[in-house]
Design goal:
Elements lengths: L8 E2 L8 E12 L4 E11 L6 E4 L4 E7 L2 E2 L6 E2 L3 E4 L5 E10 L9 E5 L2 E5 L19 E10 L5 E4 L2 E8 L2 E12 L6 E4 L2 E8 L5 E8 L8 H18 L7 E7 L6 E2 L4 E5 L12 H16 L8 E2 L5 H19 L2 H20 L11 E2 L8 H34 L3 E2 L1 H12 L8 H4 L5 E9 L4 E9 L14 E8 L5 E2 L9 E2 L4 E4 L3 E6 L7 E4 L8 E3 L4 H10 L3 H20 L7 H11 L6 H8 L4 H6 L6 H18 L1 H11 L9 H17 L4 H13 L3 H13 L3 H15 L3 H12 L7 H9 L8 H14 L1 H4 L5 H16 L1 H7 L1 H4 L6 H15 L6 H11 L1
Parallel strand pairs: 2-12, 18-19, 19-21, 22-24, 25-33
Antiparallel strand pairs: 1-23, 2-3, 3-9, 4-8, 5-6, 5-9, 7-8, 10-11, 11-16, 12-15, 13-16, 14-15, 17-18, 20-21, 25-26, 26-31, 27-28, 27-30, 27-32, 29-30
Helix pairs in contact: 1-2, 2-3, 3-4, 3-5, 4-5, 4-9, 5-6, 8-9, 8-10, 9-11, 9-13, 11-15, 14-15, 15-16, 15-17, 16-17, 17-18, 18-19, 19-21, 23-24, 23-26, 24-27, 26-27
The protein binds ligand BES and zinc ion.
Length: 871
């Protein structure tokens, strides 16, 4: 907690560390009430300075010695969150003993208890809650860890690297681990508990036999198979696609219930939020399976993009996160449907990331300052960062991109580097100058591209004019033009692709069909066209920009039918649907026969991937619609969307019912792409059907009763909850809780299906959920399931006109501010958007932010977000 105004850290203030830590020996004595940590460091001077700066937070300092001599109080300087030694020589052995209290650690950073086990979370700055240490990613050291704990209670003792020894002496188990790879402290991990393990093995391309182990609490041992399978596929994929081989004899995953994030890539010992690793058909939905596959891959891929090559400082966070998200996205695309993955990722970008870019927390992919680094694990760093990496792929092609990553890994193995070094490797490997492209890392805000086309039938020429500008963001004005890759296609009247080569060939890459748009305004011409083509721009979402391009509904329906680019088919449909919603808001919505027939065709097109059909038929979410609105009016958005949804459901009713019946056939549950795709379309059909009357609701009830997997059961429950039929909803909910109350991960789904539903999520109901025995403020997953789902999904309730929704969220933030500042700060996001709401709501939101600001003792995390929001 802060006592003074917290100060911002600046990228330009970066200084190399004075000392390196050649070796790190850690000894943990885990006692019931506290833990003693003995840290023995071999340090070596690097430059001129002989001052050693160590970070430390909430530590009890027991003793400190240099080269075996205990230091007296005058021989070091103990700051609030630091320990400094001056007048040192070139090399020393430093030993520090600290006492910490893991059982009282509710922030879930550093060493803490979750359930009956001990675990750690050190990224970004949690290691300083374990011992005094130069806790910065450019200090890389070889770690040896000794863990001593009660042998009966803690049969499993784990840390990074390879096991060295284990023995029991006088009722205490002693385990020693050694990690031969140099790493920063943020990748350190320790686990102690009474855990069961699932084992497998993997032989790397170089012939190394790797033991794979997933550790879980005993009740979860039947939920590890899918993660293990995903792990093996990830390891093979990284060899095949990036030439990256694993580098230890053992790779471990541990599932813990209390975890702030999804998972963490600690070297050789990944720690996972149990919701992101545990699954079996009865308890996990298809969405959970896909999340598990992606996160297992993501954390595994960090072994190279993050661990072997790490970040110099936290301003470089996207170097590892953006790149690794790009890697896991390609993996998921390869394992499942590439188009579906692209649709999902563009959806996240257009809702959450565009909103961040348009709000008070807008920042570049490489920020230039922060108050609390935990606040910068954002969709901009992650998802926009991944899009920026993806644009190299678009510009250079797969081969050129691979040359770049090979050079990057080769050059920087074992180093802590900057984003610039990644760009440099791309340039050097390909002989391309990315000077202008580097602006993508420095400029915040979503670029807007305005498009104009005209066709000259006499000359057979299409003219395409593109204009770009990036709006001002807090602290940033006068943005320069970006290098924007525009993947492009032209389509003939009969729906067949036309050859496209612009007359300005120097701006065209034929192999990838990419137009290089690099100036504030550029005009391209396409000659030799016999007929006016339909223009398909930004195929495959080739750049993270907003596009203003007026195309008629007729053209949109044409693209929706004929575009060979699956992403743009979907995009055309979304634009069409957004225009319906606009009409509905103006009280003049009517589905045309042409609209109905194109959707009927899609619904009955059995050549299309059913998962894709489901996405094509799904209306944009309320938050997606909000991002495409000027002033946001959540209630108007909600009722317009409901009207359109109801109209579509009744217009297509017979086809929807037929589609449902065609797909609703009993078969063994398999979490593979083909089966998941069928379930997604079937359940989309059910959600429409259940809005059309009693037989649809009866079908949902029937599916709820007979489902043998959580995907179908939850989809039916959701349909009932959203139906507005209180009786049916409540009886299904009661039955569900009765069945699943002993499984916390399933209960979390039960909480969020209610908290995120516009039909159910009244303030009274949210308060009931918060008071329910299944709820627990100390568990981040539960907080997200209720408060997070309410504020991010049940928009028409959260934004209720009396401001009660805002008050509830602010109360939650205030309550969590001290116990878990990271979670408190993350919950705040919906309130930070206050300036974009209609005035009445906007004022109510602002008032709640002000109320939070007036609290004493705001954590840095909450302070930064609230103060920037009110600035
Ligand atoms: N390194 C992060 C985990 C992390 C983030 C720890 C912030 C501490 C603070 C990890 O690699 C990660 O990015 N996890 C994501 C999931 C991933 C699939 C994008 C997460 O936890 O949400
Ligand atoms: Zn990551």
């Amino acid at each position: 907690m802060r006592d003074a105004q917290p100060t911002a850290i600046q990228l330009t203030d970066y200084k190399e560390p004075a000392y390196e830590v050649v070796e790190t020996h850690l000894r943990f004595e885990l006692e019931e009430e506290f833990t003693l940590v003995t840290s023995t460091l071999k340090i070596r001077q690097r430059g001129e300075s002989n001052e050693l700066f160590l970070n430390g937070q909430e530590l009890g300092l027991e003793s400190i010695s240099i080269d075996g001599r205990v230091l007296g109080e005058g021989e070091y300087t103990l700051g609030d969150e630091s320990l400094t030694l001056t007048g040192l020589y070139a090399e020393h052995t430093l030993q520090v003993v600290t006492r910490i209290y893991p059982a009282k650690n509710t922030a879930l950073e550093g060493l803490y208890r979750s359930g009956g086990m001990y675990c750690t979370q050190c990224e970004a700055e949690g290691f300083r809650r374990i011992t005094y240490y130069p806790d910065r990613p450019d200090v890389m050291s070889v770690f040896t860890t000794e863990i001593i704990a009660d042998a009966g209670q803690y049969p499993v003792l784990l840390s990074n690297g390879n096991p060295v020894s284990e023995e029991v002496i006088g009722g205490k188990r002693h385990a020693v681990w050694h990690d031969p790879h140099k790493k920063p402290a943020y990748l350190f991990a320790l686990v102690a508990g009474d855990l069961l393990v699932t084992e497998d093995s993997f032989t790397t391309c170089g012939g190394r036999e790797v033991a794979l182990k997933i550790f879980v609490e005993p009740r979860n041992i039947d939920k590890t198979a899918y993660a293990m399978d995903a792990l093996k596929r990830s390891m093979r994929w990284d060899e095949d696609v990036y030439g990256r081989e694993y580098d230890l004899d053992i790779f471990m995953i541990v599932a813990v219930d209390d975890f702030n994030m999804g998972a963490m890539e600690n070297k050789g010992l990944n720690i996972f939020n149990s919701s992101c690793v545990l699954a079996n058909p009865a308890t996990a939905t298809d969405a959970a399976y896909q999340r598990i596959e992606a996160i297992v891959a993501h954390e595994y891929f960090h072994n190279w993009s993050g661990n072997r090559v790490t970040c110099r400082d936290w301003f470089q966070l996207s170097l590892k996160e953006g790149f690794t998200v790009f890697r896991d996205a390609c993996f998921s695309a390869d394992m499942n449907s590439a188009t579906v993955k692209r649709v999902e990722d563009a959806g996240i970008l257009r809702t959450v990331q565009f909103a961040e870019d348009a709000g008070p927390m807008a920042h570049p992919v490489q920020p230039d300052s922060y108050i609390e680094i935990s606040n910068f694990y954002t969709v901009t760093i992650y998802e926009k960062g991944a899009e920026v990496v993806g644009m190299y792929h678009k510009i250079l092609g797969a081969e050129g991109f691979r040359k770049g990553t090979d050079l990057y890994f080769d050059r920087h193995d074992g180093q802590a580097v900057t984003i610039n070094e990644f760009v440099q490797a791309m340039e050097d490997a390909n002989g391309v100058d990315f000077t202008q492209f580097r602006r993508w890392y420095k400029q915040a805000g979503t670029p807007v591209v305005d498009v104009l086309t005209s066709y000259d039938s006499g000359a057979g020429r299409l003219t395409l004019t593109l204009r770009q500008h990036t709006p001002d963001t807090p602290g940033q004005t006068d943005k320069q033009p970006l290098w924007i890759p525009v993947q492009l296609g032209l389509i003939g009247k009969d729906g067949s692709p036309l050859t496209v080569t612009p007359d300005q060939e120097e701006f065209w890459t034929e192999s990838s069909q990419v137009l290089h748009f690099r100036e504030a305004e550029q005009t391209f011409t396409f000659s030799g066209l016999e007929q006016e083509p339909a223009v398909s721009l930004f195929r495959d979402f080739s750049a993270p920009v907003r596009v203003n391009y007026q195309q008629s509904r007729e053209t949109l329906r044409f693209l929706l039918r004929h575009d060979s680019d699956g992403f743009n088919r979907w995009d055309a449909g979304q634009r069409l649907m957004l225009s319906w919603i606009d009409d509905a808001r103006e009280g003049r919505f009517e589905l045309s026969d042409d609209d109905i027939s194109v959707y009927r065709e899609l619904l009955n097109d059995t050549d299309l991937d059913p998962a894709m059909v489901a996405y094509l038929l799904a209306l944009p979410s309320e938050s997606y619609i909000a991002e495409f609105s000027g002033e946001i009016d959540p209630l108007a958005i909600h009722s317009a969307r409901e009207e359109v949804s109801g109209a579509l459901a009744s217009a297509l009713r017979d086809d929807i019912v037929a589609c449902y019946q065609r797909l609703n056939i009993a078969r063994e549950y398999e979490p593979d792409p083909a089966h998941m795709a069928q379930r997604s379309l079937k359940n989309l059909a059910l959600s429409y059907w259940s809005r059309t009357g009693d037989d649809g609701l009866a079908a949902a009830q029937q599916q709820y009763q007979s489902a043998d997997n959580m995907t179908d059961q939850m989809a039916a429950l959701r349909a009932l909850v959203n139906s507005g039929d209180r009786m049916r909803a409540q009886s299904a909910l009661d039955d569900f809780y009765e069945r699943w109350q002993s499984d916390p991960l399933v209960v979390n789904q039960w909480l969020s299906v209610q908290a995120g539903s516009a039909e159910m999520a009244t303030i009274e109901h949210i308060n009931d959920l918060l008071a329910h025995p299944a709820f627990d403020w100390r568990n981040p997953n539960k907080v997200r399931s209720v408060i997070g789902a309410f504020a991010n999904q049940a928009l028409s309730r959260f934004h209720s006109a009396d401001g009660e929704g805002y008050r509830l969220l602010a109360d939650a933030v205030i309550r969590l501010n001290e116990s878990n500042p990271q979670i408190a700060s993350r919950l705040l996001a919906p309130l930070t958007r206050w300036k974009r709401l209609v005035p009445s709501q906007s004022q109510l939101m602002k008032a709640e932010l002000q109320r939070i600001m007036q609290q004493g003792n705001l954590s840095k995390d909450v302070f930064e977000v609230v103060s920037k929001s009110l600035a």
